[in-house]
Amino acid sequence: MIFRPERAQVRPAVEADRLALRYLLRGPLRIHLHTDWRTADEYLGDAPYLVAEHDHRLVACLACPPDPPPAAWVRLAALADSRPMRDFTALLEAGLAALGELGAQELNILGPDRWLLALLRDMGFQPLVDVITYSRENGPIPDQGARDVDIRPAQPEDLAALIPLDAAAFEPRWRHSAAMLRAAYRQVVSFDIAWLEGRPVGYQFSSTYGRYGHIGRLATHPEVQGRGIGTRLLVGALTALEQRGVVAVTLSTQADNWASRRLYERLGFRLTGEKATVWHKRLEGNPLSS
C-alpha cells in the first residue's frame, strides 16, 4: 500500500500566523523569494497571502499581492520539504482565484526555481522576457546629460508625486507602489528626483552591498525622454556610489528594453551574462490595460 499524506487545508494568512510563518521559513523547505525592498514579514496583510495547514502546522505559503494593481508578482512561495507538491498546487490555484476576484489582470514570477517550473507550465504560465544584468567597473564618469532640470535628493513628502510618473514610464507589471517606494527610500544610499518646471520628470535610487553598488531604479517620463534626463540621473548615481568607495556598479533591465540598454552601454556598462526569466500568466476575463 502506498501512503499518501492527507491534503493540507488552504486558507488566508492572518496576523496570528506571523510566528508560525517565521518558523516555516527557517525549516527545511523549497522556497522562492522576490520581495524587492519589502521583507516577507511586511507582505502579511496584503491579499492574497495564503497558507496551507496540516495537522495544525503551516506547511506552505504564497504571497502574490497586486502591488500596485493590476499586475501581481509572486513575492514569497514556500513548501516544507516533507510535504507533497500538491499542497503548493492548491495554494497557487487559490491564489489565482483570489487575484481574479480582486480584479488583477496577470500574475508574474521572476526566475522561478526548478521545483516550481513544471507546475507553472502545467498551469499555463509562459516565459515572457529575460531580465539581464549589467556591470560597470570604476572609471572616468562622463559629465553628460540634461542641464535644464533640477536634480535634488528625494524627501519623504516627494514620494507620492512619483506614482503618476511611474505609471507613465512603465508598463503595469514594472510599476512600484507607494509602499515599495517608501521601503526603498528607507534603505537606499542615493535617491534623486529630476524636476522640470515644478514637476518630477525622472528619478533614480541606488544602494550598496559590500564594495559594490546597484542602480535599483531609473525612470524618465515619456514626454521628456531623449533629452538626457536619464543620463544626468545615472551619471549622478555613479558619482555618488563611487564617492562611497564601491569598486563596481550593477543594474538590471529587460532584455527587450533597447533604449535603456543603449544608455547603459554608452556609459560603460557591460553584460555580465546573468539573466532571470519572467514567467507570466494572464488572468481570464481581466484584460491587461496600460
Kindly summarize this structure in a few lines.
By secondary structure, the chain is an alpha+beta fold. The protein is 27% helix and 34% strand.
Top keywords for this entry?
single chain; 290 residues; alpha+beta; 5-stranded antiparallel β-sheet; 7 helices; 34% strand
Structure characterization notes:
The chain is of the alpha+beta class and 290 residues long. Helix 6 links the parallel strand 12 (212-220) and strand 13 (248-254). It is built from seven helices and 14 strands. The termini are far apart. The strands form two sheets. A nine-stranded mixed sheet has the order 5-7-14-8-13-12-11-10-9, sandwiched between helices. It has helices spanning 18-26, 85-102, 114-122, 162-169, 178-187, 229-243, 258-266, and strands at 9-12, 29-33, 49-54, 57-63, 71-73, 76-80, 106-110, 126-137, 150-153, 190-196, 199-209, 212-220, 248-254, 270-282.
